[in-house]
Specification:
four-stranded antiparallel beta sheet, 99 residues, elongated, two-stranded antiparallel sheet, 6 strands, alpha+beta, Alpha-Beta Plaits
Length: 99
């Protein structure tokens, strides 16, 4: 099982990676049991960049409900662990190079 699930490509995270004068930051959805050191080695190995720091967070899944013929069906989406990775100066990740 891979530590890195997928990159987060939203307006908020894209704004972090497009800053000119500060270190670039990128967001990833990671495995819930992954530690910061495991995330660091996975990113450095996969993208061949130098990681300066990592911040992690676990965002709670949302409760959802809908109405059907059988009545109200309720459920919950799963919790997700995210990592915001700051790269060293001059480093950059291009997610679209293989497209």
């Amino acid at each position: 099982m891979s530590i890195l699930k997928k990159p987060i490509v939203t307006e908020k995270v894209s704004a972090l990676s497009e800053k000119k004068f500060t270190s670039k930051q990128y967001g990833f959805v990671v495995d819930k049991s992954a530690s910061k050191s495991e995330i660091r080695t996975a990113i450095e190995k996969l993208y061949e960049v130098e990681v300066e720091s990592i911040r992690t967070m676990i965002s709670a899944g949302k409760k959802r409900s809908r109405y059907s013929k059988a009545g109200v069906i309720s459920g919950k989406s799963s919790n997700v662990k995210k990592a915001v990775v700051t790269l060293a100066a001059g480093q950059e990740i291009d997610f679209y190079k293989n497209i």
